[in-house]
Amino acid sequence: MKRLEEREPEMRPNLRFRKMTTDDIETIARIERESFASPWSADAFRMELTQNHFANYMVMELDGNTIGYGGMWLIVDEAHVTNIAVREPYRGKGYGERLLRELMRTAAWRGAVRMTLEVRVTNHVAQSLYRKLGFYDAGIRPRYYTDNQEDALIMWAELGGVDGAVADGTPEANPDMRDASDSKAETDAETNTDTIAAEPAGEAERNRT
Fold first, then answer.
1. 95 is catalytic
2. What is the pLDDT of residue 162?
3. What is the model's pTM?
4. Which CATH number fits the domain that encloses residue 111?
5. Of 34, 134, 155, 161, which has the highest C-beta tally within 10 A?
6. Which pairs from 9-13 meet CB under 8 Å and 24+ separation?
7. 201 with 83: CB under 8 angstroms?
8. What pLDDT does residue 161 have?
9. Does residue 46 belong to any structural domain of this protein?
């Protein structure tokens, strides 16, 4: 079993993670449009936050400004990353890696023992980041991406080596993270590991022909 590497990119101390709320939707939808060829709509995020009981979404703030977000579906003891993206000016600085680590920690704290995501087969930069954090190849989803019918590489990680610390302390000490809700995941970082964003699993399935 591969373990999450101990060392993390150094971040400024005023980096904070908290639960996404409906008040965040306008900002999140803007980042979504910056990051993806087939972005989720504001209504899709609203449905995730209000109607999907499996969804856990968080936002990443720096100096009080939202610079990224991530989400996953937690079903029994497995987590499925659905979205993860960082605003363009903050890419290439380690924030994407920090955000994914936070998702992994939150999933482990909430009882998940494994995490999965999909990534474009041509996105070798993102795949490299995922492998750094303990993900391994587990299969192919043919024609998964609706914009160009590209295949997705399925990756999994075991969460047994993930500790519970988060930017503002452990989840137990950070009420904002206890109920972080909602999700989506493809890594659209063709040249930048910090756009780690994966096409929403649920939407991809609904739109596939």
1. no
2. 65
3. 0.75
4. 3.40.630.30
5. 155
6. 9/93, 9/94, 9/95, 9/97, 9/98, 10/94, 11/94, 11/95, 11/98, 11/167, 12/62, 12/63
7. no
8. 67
9. yes
Task: Determine contact, residues 17/166, Cβ cutoff 8 Å.
Answer: yes
Q: How many domains does the chain have?
A: 1
Q: Which is the catalytic residue, given 130, 144, 199, 203?
A: 130
Q: Is 7 contained in some domain?
A: no
Give per-residue pLDDT as tens, 145-183: 988 999 999 999 999 866 543 333 344 434 455 444 333
Neighbouring residues of 7: CB distance < 8 A, sequence distance ≥ 6: none
The CB-side HSE value for 104 (13 A sphere, CA atoms) comes to 25
**Assign residue 182 a region: left if phi > 0, alpha if psi is -120 to 50, beta otherwise?**
left
Instruction: Identify the helix (H) or strand (E) that includes residue 79.
Output: strand 78-86
Domain housing 149? 15-207
Instruction: Tell me the pLDDT band of 2, cut-offs 50, 70 and 90.
Output: very low
Is 118 catalytic? The answer is yes
Partners of 141 in the β-ladder: 152
Q: Which of 32, 61, 97, 118 is catalytic?
A: 118
Instruction: Let me know if residue 5 belongs to a domain.
Output: no
> Is 4 part of any domain?
no
